[in-house]
Specification:
Layout: E1 9-10, E2 13-14, H1 17-35, H2 45-59, E3 86-88, H3 96-99, H4 103-110, E4 120-122, H5 127-139, E5 144-146, H6 162-177, H7 186-193, E6 203-206, E7 211-216, H8 220-237, E8 242-246, H9 250-260, E9 266-269, H10 280-289, E10 296-298, H11 301-304, E11 319-324, H12 326-334
Helix pairs in contact: 1-2, 4-5, 6-7, 8-9, 9-10
Length: 349
Protein backbone atom coordinates (compact mmCIF):
# COMPACT_ATOMS: atom_id res chain seq x y z
CA UNK A 1 0.00 0.00 0.00
CA UNK A 2 2.75 2.46 0.97
CA UNK A 3 6.11 0.73 1.32
CA UNK A 4 7.54 -1.90 -1.03
CA UNK A 5 8.66 -4.04 1.92
CA UNK A 6 5.01 -4.71 2.86
CA UNK A 7 5.03 -7.34 0.11
CA UNK A 8 7.62 -9.47 1.94
CA UNK A 9 7.12 -9.99 5.67
CA UNK A 10 8.30 -12.38 8.37
CA UNK A 11 6.12 -12.55 11.48
CA UNK A 12 4.33 -9.42 10.18
CA UNK A 13 7.58 -7.43 10.03
CA UNK A 14 8.24 -5.96 6.59
CA UNK A 15 11.62 -6.54 5.00
CA UNK A 16 13.83 -3.49 5.60
CA UNK A 17 14.88 -1.03 2.94
CA UNK A 18 18.52 -2.03 3.53
CA UNK A 19 17.65 -5.69 2.86
CA UNK A 20 15.77 -4.74 -0.33
CA UNK A 21 18.86 -2.91 -1.59
CA UNK A 22 21.08 -5.85 -0.62
CA UNK A 23 18.94 -8.42 -2.44
CA UNK A 24 18.58 -6.16 -5.49
CA UNK A 25 22.36 -5.94 -5.74
CA UNK A 26 22.72 -9.71 -5.38
CA UNK A 27 19.98 -10.57 -7.87
CA UNK A 28 20.82 -7.93 -10.47
CA UNK A 29 23.65 -9.97 -12.03
CA UNK A 30 21.43 -13.07 -12.16
CA UNK A 31 18.68 -11.11 -13.95
CA UNK A 32 21.17 -9.68 -16.48
CA UNK A 33 22.60 -13.14 -17.15
CA UNK A 34 19.11 -14.52 -17.75
CA UNK A 35 18.23 -11.77 -20.23
CA UNK A 36 21.63 -11.91 -21.98
CA UNK A 37 21.01 -8.60 -23.75
CA UNK A 38 17.36 -9.36 -24.62
CA UNK A 39 15.14 -7.02 -22.57
CA UNK A 40 12.10 -9.25 -23.23
CA UNK A 41 13.81 -12.04 -21.28
CA UNK A 42 14.66 -9.87 -18.28
CA UNK A 43 12.70 -10.88 -15.16
CA UNK A 44 9.62 -8.72 -14.59
CA UNK A 45 9.08 -6.61 -11.47
CA UNK A 46 6.94 -9.35 -9.90
CA UNK A 47 9.40 -12.12 -10.84
CA UNK A 48 12.22 -10.11 -9.27
CA UNK A 49 10.18 -9.59 -6.09
CA UNK A 50 9.28 -13.29 -5.94
CA UNK A 51 12.95 -14.28 -6.19
CA UNK A 52 13.80 -11.77 -3.47
CA UNK A 53 11.08 -13.14 -1.17
CA UNK A 54 12.07 -16.78 -1.62
CA UNK A 55 15.76 -16.03 -1.07
CA UNK A 56 14.95 -13.99 2.05
CA UNK A 57 12.65 -16.68 3.48
CA UNK A 58 15.27 -19.36 2.78
CA UNK A 59 18.10 -17.46 4.42
CA UNK A 60 15.95 -16.54 7.44
CA UNK A 61 14.92 -20.22 7.71
CA UNK A 62 11.18 -19.61 8.00
CA UNK A 63 9.15 -22.69 8.96
CA UNK A 64 5.95 -21.82 7.09
CA UNK A 65 5.68 -19.45 4.12
CA UNK A 66 2.36 -18.16 2.81
CA UNK A 67 2.93 -17.28 -0.84
CA UNK A 68 0.22 -15.32 -2.65
CA UNK A 69 -0.14 -15.85 -6.38
CA UNK A 70 0.30 -12.65 -8.35
CA UNK A 71 -1.99 -13.32 -11.32
CA UNK A 72 -3.85 -16.47 -12.30
CA UNK A 73 -1.65 -19.33 -11.18
CA UNK A 74 -0.56 -21.65 -13.96
CA UNK A 75 2.03 -19.25 -15.43
CA UNK A 76 2.62 -17.17 -12.30
CA UNK A 77 6.16 -16.71 -10.98
CA UNK A 78 5.16 -18.25 -7.63
CA UNK A 79 4.16 -21.51 -9.34
CA UNK A 80 7.74 -22.83 -9.30
CA UNK A 81 7.01 -23.95 -5.74
CA UNK A 82 5.63 -27.30 -4.62
CA UNK A 83 3.59 -26.36 -1.56
CA UNK A 84 2.20 -28.30 1.39
CA UNK A 85 -1.26 -27.01 0.46
CA UNK A 86 -2.85 -25.10 -2.40
CA UNK A 87 -5.62 -22.61 -1.52
CA UNK A 88 -8.03 -21.11 -4.07
CA UNK A 89 -10.18 -18.35 -2.61
CA UNK A 90 -12.54 -17.11 -5.30
CA UNK A 91 -13.00 -16.91 -9.05
CA UNK A 92 -14.53 -13.98 -10.93
CA UNK A 93 -14.18 -12.22 -14.27
CA UNK A 94 -11.03 -10.19 -13.62
CA UNK A 95 -7.81 -9.78 -15.67
CA UNK A 96 -9.78 -11.22 -18.60
CA UNK A 97 -7.26 -9.87 -21.11
CA UNK A 98 -4.69 -12.29 -19.68
CA UNK A 99 -6.59 -15.15 -18.02
CA UNK A 100 -9.51 -15.57 -20.45
CA UNK A 101 -13.00 -14.13 -20.64
CA UNK A 102 -15.00 -17.00 -19.13
CA UNK A 103 -15.23 -18.47 -15.64
CA UNK A 104 -14.09 -21.84 -17.03
CA UNK A 105 -10.97 -20.36 -18.67
CA UNK A 106 -10.02 -18.43 -15.51
CA UNK A 107 -10.66 -21.51 -13.34
CA UNK A 108 -8.21 -23.52 -15.49
CA UNK A 109 -5.54 -20.85 -14.99
CA UNK A 110 -6.09 -20.72 -11.23
CA UNK A 111 -6.17 -24.52 -10.99
CA UNK A 112 -2.64 -24.45 -12.39
CA UNK A 113 -1.33 -24.17 -8.80
CA UNK A 114 -2.68 -27.66 -7.99
CA UNK A 115 0.30 -30.03 -7.76
CA UNK A 116 0.38 -33.80 -8.02
CA UNK A 117 -0.57 -35.37 -4.69
CA UNK A 118 -0.71 -32.03 -2.87
CA UNK A 119 -3.99 -31.26 -1.04
CA UNK A 120 -6.09 -28.34 -2.26
CA UNK A 121 -8.87 -26.40 -0.53
CA UNK A 122 -11.26 -23.99 -2.24
CA UNK A 123 -13.99 -21.61 -1.26
CA UNK A 124 -17.51 -22.10 -2.64
CA UNK A 125 -16.94 -21.48 -6.36
CA UNK A 126 -19.29 -21.03 -9.32
CA UNK A 127 -20.56 -24.45 -10.48
CA UNK A 128 -18.57 -24.45 -13.73
CA UNK A 129 -15.39 -23.52 -11.85
CA UNK A 130 -15.96 -26.31 -9.30
CA UNK A 131 -16.16 -28.86 -12.11
CA UNK A 132 -12.82 -27.65 -13.50
CA UNK A 133 -11.18 -27.83 -10.05
CA UNK A 134 -12.49 -31.33 -9.37
CA UNK A 135 -11.37 -32.60 -12.77
CA UNK A 136 -7.82 -31.25 -12.45
CA UNK A 137 -7.50 -32.35 -8.80
CA UNK A 138 -8.62 -35.89 -9.74
CA UNK A 139 -6.26 -35.95 -12.71
CA UNK A 140 -3.33 -34.98 -10.43
CA UNK A 141 -4.46 -37.21 -7.55
CA UNK A 142 -4.71 -34.19 -5.26
CA UNK A 143 -7.18 -34.49 -2.36
CA UNK A 144 -9.68 -31.65 -2.75
CA UNK A 145 -11.95 -30.11 -0.11
CA UNK A 146 -14.36 -27.28 -0.92
CA UNK A 147 -16.57 -25.13 1.24
CA UNK A 148 -20.22 -25.90 0.61
CA UNK A 149 -22.26 -23.18 -1.16
CA UNK A 150 -24.96 -23.98 1.43
CA UNK A 151 -22.68 -23.00 4.33
CA UNK A 152 -24.59 -20.73 6.73
CA UNK A 153 -22.38 -20.51 9.82
CA UNK A 154 -19.04 -18.70 9.54
CA UNK A 155 -16.20 -17.99 11.97
CA UNK A 156 -16.58 -14.52 13.50
CA UNK A 157 -14.13 -11.81 12.44
CA UNK A 158 -14.01 -8.06 13.02
CA UNK A 159 -13.70 -7.46 9.26
CA UNK A 160 -16.64 -5.93 7.40
CA UNK A 161 -18.18 -7.74 4.45
CA UNK A 162 -19.91 -11.06 3.97
CA UNK A 163 -17.00 -12.39 1.88
CA UNK A 164 -14.77 -12.19 4.96
CA UNK A 165 -16.85 -14.99 6.52
CA UNK A 166 -16.01 -17.21 3.55
CA UNK A 167 -12.33 -16.23 3.81
CA UNK A 168 -12.30 -17.06 7.53
CA UNK A 169 -13.99 -20.43 6.93
CA UNK A 170 -11.45 -21.24 4.22
CA UNK A 171 -8.57 -20.29 6.55
CA UNK A 172 -9.89 -22.70 9.20
CA UNK A 173 -10.32 -25.44 6.58
CA UNK A 174 -6.70 -24.89 5.49
CA UNK A 175 -5.50 -25.17 9.10
CA UNK A 176 -7.48 -28.37 9.63
CA UNK A 177 -6.07 -29.88 6.43
CA UNK A 178 -2.50 -29.30 7.66
CA UNK A 179 -3.12 -30.43 11.25
CA UNK A 180 -1.05 -33.61 11.06
CA UNK A 181 2.11 -31.73 10.06
CA UNK A 182 1.47 -28.29 11.58
CA UNK A 183 -0.81 -28.71 14.63
CA UNK A 184 -2.74 -25.52 15.42
CA UNK A 185 -5.19 -25.02 18.28
CA UNK A 186 -8.45 -24.34 16.43
CA UNK A 187 -9.98 -22.43 19.35
CA UNK A 188 -6.99 -20.08 19.39
CA UNK A 189 -7.28 -19.66 15.63
CA UNK A 190 -10.96 -18.77 15.94
CA UNK A 191 -10.11 -16.27 18.68
CA UNK A 192 -7.36 -14.74 16.53
CA UNK A 193 -9.82 -14.18 13.68
CA UNK A 194 -11.83 -11.89 15.95
CA UNK A 195 -8.80 -9.60 16.29
CA UNK A 196 -7.56 -9.58 12.69
CA UNK A 197 -7.03 -6.16 11.08
CA UNK A 198 -6.59 -5.52 7.37
CA UNK A 199 -5.76 -2.07 6.08
CA UNK A 200 -7.79 -0.64 3.24
CA UNK A 201 -10.67 -3.15 3.42
CA UNK A 202 -13.64 -1.08 4.63
CA UNK A 203 -11.27 0.34 7.22
CA UNK A 204 -13.09 2.93 9.33
CA UNK A 205 -10.80 5.55 10.90
CA UNK A 206 -12.21 8.10 13.33
CA UNK A 207 -10.39 11.38 12.87
CA UNK A 208 -10.71 14.43 15.15
CA UNK A 209 -14.05 15.64 13.76
CA UNK A 210 -14.92 13.29 10.90
CA UNK A 211 -14.73 9.65 9.80
CA UNK A 212 -12.45 8.38 7.04
CA UNK A 213 -13.25 5.04 5.38
CA UNK A 214 -10.64 3.36 3.15
CA UNK A 215 -11.86 0.56 0.89
CA UNK A 216 -9.92 -1.00 -1.97
CA UNK A 217 -12.62 -1.90 -4.50
CA UNK A 218 -10.77 -2.76 -7.68
CA UNK A 219 -13.01 -5.35 -9.39
CA UNK A 220 -16.67 -6.29 -9.87
CA UNK A 221 -16.70 -8.63 -6.85
CA UNK A 222 -15.31 -5.85 -4.68
CA UNK A 223 -17.97 -3.47 -5.99
CA UNK A 224 -20.67 -5.95 -5.02
CA UNK A 225 -19.36 -6.02 -1.46
CA UNK A 226 -19.01 -2.24 -1.40
CA UNK A 227 -22.71 -2.00 -2.33
CA UNK A 228 -23.59 -4.11 0.73
CA UNK A 229 -21.49 -1.89 2.98
CA UNK A 230 -22.97 1.33 1.56
CA UNK A 231 -26.50 -0.03 1.96
CA UNK A 232 -25.73 -0.85 5.59
CA UNK A 233 -24.16 2.58 6.18
CA UNK A 234 -27.29 4.33 4.88
CA UNK A 235 -29.81 1.96 6.48
CA UNK A 236 -28.22 1.62 9.92
CA UNK A 237 -26.52 5.01 10.35
CA UNK A 238 -28.30 7.29 7.88
CA UNK A 239 -24.98 8.24 6.27
CA UNK A 240 -24.30 9.19 2.67
CA UNK A 241 -20.51 9.56 2.40
CA UNK A 242 -18.48 12.04 0.40
CA UNK A 243 -16.65 9.75 -2.04
CA UNK A 244 -13.11 10.14 -3.42
CA UNK A 245 -12.44 7.59 -6.16
CA UNK A 246 -10.06 6.49 -8.91
CA UNK A 247 -9.66 3.33 -11.01
CA UNK A 248 -6.56 1.71 -12.44
CA UNK A 249 -8.47 0.44 -15.52
CA UNK A 250 -11.57 1.54 -17.43
CA UNK A 251 -12.94 -2.02 -17.37
CA UNK A 252 -13.04 -1.91 -13.58
CA UNK A 253 -14.58 1.55 -13.38
CA UNK A 254 -18.04 0.70 -14.70
CA UNK A 255 -19.16 -1.53 -11.82
CA UNK A 256 -17.59 0.77 -9.21
CA UNK A 257 -19.31 3.91 -10.51
CA UNK A 258 -22.65 2.06 -10.69
CA UNK A 259 -22.17 1.08 -7.05
CA UNK A 260 -21.34 4.47 -5.55
CA UNK A 261 -23.76 6.56 -7.65
CA UNK A 262 -26.92 5.94 -5.54
CA UNK A 263 -25.25 6.42 -2.14
CA UNK A 264 -22.80 9.33 -2.45
CA UNK A 265 -23.38 12.81 -1.07
CA UNK A 266 -20.72 14.09 -3.50
CA UNK A 267 -18.10 12.39 -5.68
CA UNK A 268 -14.54 13.60 -6.28
CA UNK A 269 -12.76 12.02 -9.26
CA UNK A 270 -8.99 11.42 -9.26
CA UNK A 271 -6.76 10.61 -12.24
CA UNK A 272 -4.09 8.10 -11.20
CA UNK A 273 -0.52 8.47 -12.45
CA UNK A 274 -0.35 4.79 -13.48
CA UNK A 275 -0.42 4.16 -17.23
CA UNK A 276 -3.79 2.96 -18.50
CA UNK A 277 -5.77 4.24 -15.53
CA UNK A 278 -9.32 5.51 -16.08
CA UNK A 279 -9.56 9.22 -16.85
CA UNK A 280 -11.78 11.62 -14.96
CA UNK A 281 -13.80 12.07 -18.16
CA UNK A 282 -14.45 8.33 -18.39
CA UNK A 283 -15.39 8.08 -14.70
CA UNK A 284 -17.80 11.01 -15.10
CA UNK A 285 -19.35 9.34 -18.15
CA UNK A 286 -19.93 6.13 -16.13
CA UNK A 287 -21.56 8.11 -13.32
CA UNK A 288 -23.82 9.97 -15.73
CA UNK A 289 -24.93 6.66 -17.25
CA UNK A 290 -25.65 5.46 -13.72
CA UNK A 291 -27.82 8.58 -13.22
CA UNK A 292 -25.84 9.89 -10.26
CA UNK A 293 -27.70 12.92 -8.89
CA UNK A 294 -25.04 14.24 -6.50
CA UNK A 295 -22.29 16.80 -7.31
CA UNK A 296 -19.43 15.28 -9.36
CA UNK A 297 -16.13 17.14 -9.25
CA UNK A 298 -12.65 16.61 -10.68
CA UNK A 299 -9.95 16.84 -8.04
CA UNK A 300 -6.24 16.40 -7.29
CA UNK A 301 -5.00 14.35 -4.34
CA UNK A 302 -2.64 17.11 -3.24
CA UNK A 303 -5.58 19.52 -3.01
CA UNK A 304 -7.78 17.05 -1.12
CA UNK A 305 -4.95 16.07 1.24
CA UNK A 306 -2.75 19.19 1.37
CA UNK A 307 -0.71 18.14 4.39
CA UNK A 308 -0.05 15.09 6.54
CA UNK A 309 -3.14 13.92 8.39
CA UNK A 310 -5.43 16.58 6.92
CA UNK A 311 -8.29 16.37 4.40
CA UNK A 312 -9.67 19.59 2.89
CA UNK A 313 -13.17 18.04 2.76
CA UNK A 314 -13.23 17.47 6.51
CA UNK A 315 -16.16 18.94 8.39
CA UNK A 316 -17.77 18.07 11.73
CA UNK A 317 -19.44 14.65 11.54
CA UNK A 318 -18.55 14.24 7.85
CA UNK A 319 -17.98 10.75 6.44
CA UNK A 320 -15.36 10.56 3.69
CA UNK A 321 -15.01 7.31 1.71
CA UNK A 322 -11.88 6.71 -0.37
CA UNK A 323 -12.51 3.78 -2.70
CA UNK A 324 -11.35 2.21 -5.95
CA UNK A 325 -7.78 1.39 -6.90
CA UNK A 326 -5.35 -0.04 -4.36
CA UNK A 327 -2.90 2.62 -5.59
CA UNK A 328 -5.35 5.32 -4.50
CA UNK A 329 -5.74 3.74 -1.05
CA UNK A 330 -1.95 3.57 -0.70
CA UNK A 331 -1.51 7.19 -1.75
CA UNK A 332 -4.03 8.37 0.87
CA UNK A 333 -2.58 6.11 3.59
CA UNK A 334 0.82 7.64 2.89
CA UNK A 335 -0.67 11.02 3.82
CA UNK A 336 -1.79 9.65 7.18
CA UNK A 337 1.06 7.26 7.96
CA UNK A 338 4.23 8.83 6.52
CA UNK A 339 7.27 6.59 6.36
CA UNK A 340 10.90 7.62 6.60
CA UNK A 341 11.59 6.83 2.95
CA UNK A 342 13.56 8.75 0.34
CA UNK A 343 10.75 10.53 -1.56
CA UNK A 344 12.80 10.57 -4.76
CA UNK A 345 12.43 6.80 -5.03
CA UNK A 346 9.44 5.26 -6.79
CA UNK A 347 8.61 1.87 -5.29
CA UNK A 348 5.35 1.19 -7.13
CA UNK A 349 5.28 -1.29 -10.04
Amino acid sequence: LVYLGERIQINRQAISEAKIVEYCERLKSVALKMSDGDPDQHPSFFEFMTAMALLYFSEEKVEIALIETGLGGRLDATNILTPQLSVITSIGLDHTDILGDTIIAIAREKAGIIKAGVPVVTSALPAEASIVMQHIATERQSPLQALSPALTEFPATNLAGSFQGWNAALAILAIQTLQTRWPVNIERALSALKNVHWKGRWERRQQASYELILDATHNAQGAQQLAENLQSLLRDEGIRPIVITACSQESRAVSLMQTIAPYAKAIYLIQLEQAGSASQTFLRHCLQKSKACCPILDAQLDALFPRIGHCSLAAPKACILVTGSIYLIGAVLERFEPKEIDSSLSFQD
